Amino acid sequence: MAVFRIGAILGLLLTGVWFPALQSREGYEGTQSNGLPLRGAVEHSGILIGTAIRPQRLSEPAYAATLSREFNLVEPEDAMKWESVHPAQDQFDFSQADRAADFAAEHRMKLRGHTLVWHHQLSPWLTERRRSPDQLALVLKTHIQTVAGHYRGRVLAWDVVNEAFAEDGTGNLKNTIWYNQPGIGFAGQGTAYIEQCFRWAHEADPQALLFYNDAEAEAINPKSNAIYAMVRDFKRRAVPIDGVGLQMHITHLHSDTLSIARNIERITSLGLQVHITEMDVAVPVDTAGNATTEDLQHQAEIYRDIAAACLRYPGCTAIQTWGFTDKYSWIGSHSRHRQGAALLFDHDYRPKPSYQALRDALQKRH
Question: Among 162, 214, 267, 295, which one is least packed by beta carbons within 10 Å?
Answer without folding.
Answer: 295
